[in-house]
C-alpha cells in the first residue's frame, strides 16, 4: 500500500511539457542574403530561376527565436533587363519565396530586392557628340547581387 501511495504522489507532481505555440505575425521582417552571385550579365541568370539564400539574422517573436540566422531560404528572379548600348544599365529584381523556421516548417515570404547597374547614358552621348560616333556603343554596367548584400522580406500571413 505504501508503494502505491508513493507512486501516486510521484506521478502527481510530473506535468507534461508541451512546446509553447508561438504566433508569427504577418509582416514580420526577415532579412535574407543570397548564397551565390546573381547578375544581369547575358548568359548568367534568367527570369524564373530560384536562388539559394540564407537568413541574415535571427527572427525573434515574444523573446523566442522562430527563424535562426543562417537558416535556408529561397528567392526567385522575377525580372532581368540586360545592359545595352548607349549606356543603358542592367536591372535585376528578386522576390523572396520562403525561409526555414526553427521547427522545420517553411515560412512563406513576400518582398524582395531591386538592383540596378550604373547608367552611362550621359557619358556615352557626351563622348559621342564631342569625340567620335563609335562611343555611342559604350554599354552600361550590369546589375549584380551576391553574398554580402542583404535584402528584406516579410512573413506573408500569421503563422501559428
Order of helices and strands: HEEEEEEEEHEE
Q: Radius of gyration, Cα only, in angstroms?
A: 26 Å
Work out the helix count: 2
Given as residue ranges, the uncertain stretches (5+ residues, pLDDT < 50) are 14-19
Largest sheet: 6 strands, antiparallel, barrel
Q: What is the residue-mean pLDDT, rounded to a whole number? A: 77
Portion in strands? 35-45%
Main sheet: strand order:
1-3-6-7-8-10
Q: Structural class from helices and strands?
A: mainly beta
Distance between the termini: 46 Å
Please tell me what the overall shape is. elongated
Helix amount? 10-25%
Total number of beta strands: 10
Task: Characterise this structure.
The chain has 160 residues and is mainly β. The protein contains two helices and ten strands; from the N terminus they run αββββββββαββ. The chain has helices at 2-13, 121-130; strands at residues 29-34, 38-39, 50-55, 59-61, 64-67, 72-81, 91-100, 106-116, 144-145, 151-155. The strands form three sheets. A six-stranded antiparallel barrel has the order 1-3-6-7-8-10. The longest helix has 12 residues, at 2-13. The chain starts with a helix and ends in a 5-residue tail after the last strand. Mean pLDDT is 77; it is low at 14-19.
Amino acid at each position: 500500500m505504501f508503494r502505491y501511495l508513493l507512486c501516486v504522489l510521484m506521478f502527481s507532481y510530473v506535468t507534461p511539457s508541451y512546446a509553447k505555440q508561438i504566433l508569427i505575425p504577418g509582416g514580420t521582417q526577415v532579412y535574407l542574403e543570397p548564397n551565390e552571385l546573381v547578375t544581369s550579365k547575358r548568359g548568367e541568370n534568367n527570369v524564373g530561376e530560384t536562388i539559394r539564400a540564407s537568413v541574415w539574422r535571427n527572427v525573434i517573436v515574444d523573446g523566442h527565436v522562430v527563424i535562426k540566422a543562417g537558416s535556408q531560404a529561397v528567392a526567385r528572379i522575377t525580372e532581368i533587363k540586360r545592359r545595352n548600348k548607349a549606356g543603358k544599365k542592367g536591372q535585376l529584381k528578386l522576390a523572396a519565396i520562403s525561409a526555414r523556421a526553427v521547427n522545420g516548417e517553411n515560412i512563406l515570404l513576400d518582398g524582395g530586392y531591386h538592383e540596378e547597374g550604373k547608367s552611362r547614358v550621359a557619358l556615352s552621348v557626351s563622348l559621342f557628340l564631342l569625340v567620335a560616333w563609335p562611343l555611342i556603343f559604350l554599354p552600361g554596367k550590369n546589375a549584380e547581387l551576391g553574398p554580402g548584400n542583404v535584402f528584406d522580406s516579410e512573413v506573408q500571413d500569421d503563422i501559428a
